[in-house]
Amino acid sequence: MTSGGNHPYVGAWWPDAHILGYEHGFVNEAADIMKVLGKQAPVVPLPDFADAYETQRVLEAALLSADQHCPIKIADVK
Length: 78
What we know:
Elements: H1 22-37, H2 49-68
């Protein structure tokens, strides 16, 4: 639920104690993309390829962990 100052997009949505759902995330992302295209700073920095690479490392570690039935350190995943 929203509460003033605890969510970067709360000012664009409902008053305190209301829910921001899954669909609101897409609207917020689209708003940030439009801001960047308009030469403005996004509310939250947009992910880049480095972020995507790190996400893939986490997913690879999860797959290896499930396959090997043991913990896998992210540092061991290239």
